[in-house]
Write a structure and sequence with these properties.
The chain is α+β, with helices and mostly antiparallel strands. It has five helices and 15 strands. Strand 7 and strand 8 form a beta hairpin. Helix 1 packs antiparallel against helix 2.
Length: about 270
């Protein structure tokens, strides 16, 4: 059975280059959002900023209209884990806001997310954000040709377990990405090394740990989108899209392709 028969899309170098263009649009949008986050700004205003950045680059927002989603970003605040719908909610000092963004260029998708502190936040929240990002990078660093998706999952989980006390959301996962925003294979944030789809050059994946200060269980609100922690604990979310090349991982939604982070972790840079 071929990779395409299994639904896993293997990209050519030229196709990966198109995904890189989409990834840089997402990077631009998230940088603009990070700069705009402050007490008093509404999540609808943030959505408008991202929409303008994406469309000004002659790209298309991946999220708007996706299965009926009404906005160009997901904006999830505090106990909201993912898929928050932008609206009238205004951010307050001490909040956390997760901003998830996707863009399409020439039919190819990029997808990434950041969690941003609003003003001065509690130290444990800063640690939550930092550890969530570190887990994402640990997962990406574990991606090598010949390994399996489970190696990524195991690396994400191992870092978070070592940092201690976090809930790792299992109901929502990373995913394959390319000509569609969500493709096989799923990339769970917990798992065993050596399991799952094999990693080969040309595969593109989004790694996105969702981590809470409490338990891992979640509920979906009546809007049909917003996911919140069952116990009300606050959450963080980090995501990057990467492609695996013959050299290693190339992070398509990072400005430098992930070179600094991957080099610091002692693994080859694939860009």
């Amino acid at each position: 059975m071929s990779w395409r028969d299994r639904g896993v899309e293997i990209k050519t170098p030229e196709q990966i280059a198109s995904m890189r263009r989409a990834g840089l649009v997402v990077c631009d949008a998230l940088e603009a959002l990070r700069a705009a986050v402050r007490p008093g700004v509404s999540t609808a205003e943030l959505d408008a900023i991202a929409d303008d950045v994406i469309r000004s680059a002659s790209a298309t927002p991946s999220f708007k209209g996706y299965q009926g989603f009404p906005a160009s970003i997901c904006a999830s605040v505090n106990e909201q884990v993912v898929h928050g719908i932008p609206g009238d909610l205004r951010l307050a000092e001490g909040d956390l806001v997760s901003l998830d963004c996707g863009a399409i260029v020439d039919g190819w998708h990029g997808d990434a997310a950041i969690t941003v502190p609003v003003g001065q936040v509690a130290p444990e929240l800063l640690a939550l954000v930092a550890d969530t990002e570190a887990a994402m990078w640990a997962g990406i660093a574990a991606a090598r040709a010949g390994r399996r998706v489970g190696d990524i999952s195991a690396a994400v989980e191992a870092l978070l377990r070592a940092r201690g006390g976090y809930g790792i959301v299992e109901d929502y996962t990373g995913h394959g990405i390319g000509t569609a925003m969500h493709q096989p294979p799923d990339v769970p944030n917990t798992g065993r090394a050596g399991r799952g789809a094999r990693l080969v050059p040309g595969i593109a994946l989004a790694v996105e740990p969702m981590v809470t200060l409490g338990g891992p269980d979640t509920d979906e609100l009546d809007d049909g989108w917003t996911v919140v922690t069952t116990d009300g604990s606050w959450a963080a979310h980090a995501e990057h899209t990467f492609a695996l090349t013959e050299r290693g991982a190339w992070v398509l939604t990072a400005r430098d392709g992930g070179e600094a982070e991957l080099t610091a972790l002692g693994v080859p840079f694939g860009g």
